[in-house]
Amino acid sequence: MRYAGTLGTLLVLLIAAPHAEDREAAERYSATLALERNLRTPNEQSPTLNDLRAAISSYETIQRQFPTSAYGDNALWQAAGLALEAFDRYHQQLDFNTGKRLLNRLLVDYPKSSLVLRGAERRKRFDSLKRITWLTDIEREVRENIVRVTVKFDGEVEFNSEQLERPARLFFDLHATDAAPPFRNTTLTFNGEAIRNIRLGRRPNQVTRIVLDTEGIDRCNTFTLYEPFRLVIDCKPSSHRVEALGTATVTPPPTSSSALPIRIAKKGTVANDSVKTPTAVDLKNTRRLSLTRQLGLGISRVVIDAGHGGYDPGARARGLEEADIVLDIAKRLEQRLSTYPIEVVLTRRRDDYIPLEARTQLANRVDADLFLSIHANASPHTSTRGVETYFLNLTNDVTSETLAASENAATVETIGHLPDLLQAIATNDKLEESKHFAELVQQAIVDTLRKVDPEIPDLGVKQAPFIVLIGARMPSVLAEISFVTNEHDATFLSTDVYRDLIADALFKAILRYERTLKKHTGLETVLQAGSG
What we know:
The protein has helices at 2-40, 49-65, 72-90, 93-109, 116-130, 291-294, 322-337, 356-365, 398-407, 418-426, 431-449, 487-493, 496-517, 522-531; strands at residues 133-143, 146-153, 159-164, 169-175, 177-179, 186-189, 197-203, 207-213, 217-225, 230-237, 259-260, 263-264, 270-271, 275-276, 301-306, 316-317, 320-321, 343-346, 370-377, 387-392, 458-464, 476-483.
């Protein structure tokens, strides 16, 4: 009897043990499920990434400790769903990897589970989110007489936009894009008279729509910047709202050819006593070997700027647009440089408008070693043709002044910035190297193009105060590759062969300049100085 009692007790314990495990698994699964529901309940505070990952970990622990319970496959499925939520909200690679790993474990450990059939659909959802570009931030700021809205992304975005009336608004549809949680399906409200509300919403087919209220706005210009990719919208309020933006009205000072009623004082100040305008720096009296060469510096990164773009097509004639031509040549040049150990950054890759100032700002931001701006020329005299290359300096040449005025027409700088601009030109410490680079560019283009057009005029190397070159911390030049207004030049510019030759010439000029930097050794410099 005693034996039978002991056996009965063992049987009861063996039967009860699995039930006890099931109960514990059920209790812990229910508790974690309640936690997940709480995280997914819409409220003012979104779940943090740590909260989501903690819940995922809790589900994984249940599956590891109770793999044969009725809750093992469900725990993996729920954990994968939370990983999808975490990746959707915060776009961290770790959560993408976690979700894929959990779905694979579900397939391997529970091949007969009904949840396995739904796994393929969830994998597709992960993959679709992987291809989405994320809107990470939106900024609004008042700059001079415009309101600037900057939308930041973690990658390049394709978009289309449209201006609507009644009420006035400007919307952008961002394709294959989603907004980070703080900006998803929300309205941003700002103080001020212009662009007070920015609304964001999700639309079908992975499209995010941004809507700007543009009541009281005369016009908006849109352009993109890179590294990181940004969509920038500059909106100019109507004249009666300028004062509300805090913009002061500046009265232009009287000018003459020899003097300006300003002097460069502390930054941001203007003194009213007249002094002569800073004159062009005389390069004949500069040092024989620049500091760049004394230090043995080389080139590793070049910024190629395709002039104009977007609503600013540049010179237009004979069915050609300057912006299209120079962008095509910039891309051809980039392709050639990609075979050489030099990194290339383009200021634009599409028909986008980029402010003149933003182009050299980009070059400075990426620590470029050279800046080359490519343009096509124009003249009211259709017989004018040829090639010319510019570096930054003041000029007394009327033709150069006129060209600079034309190329600078799109700048957002105002008269109040004149002292700083003059100072930037007068103290430009890259004049020597810019002039040398310009000479190599001019020579390479002329020599190359004369292979197919022996009579093309060499208009030479010139200097002018181009806004697009001001502020560059590296040698910088602007190349005018031919005249679209001249029938002969335009015919050549419309061909692939001619554009390839220009790209070849610019490629040669960059390589030649790079080689000249390393030409002078310390001994050679001493010998040259001694023989002078």
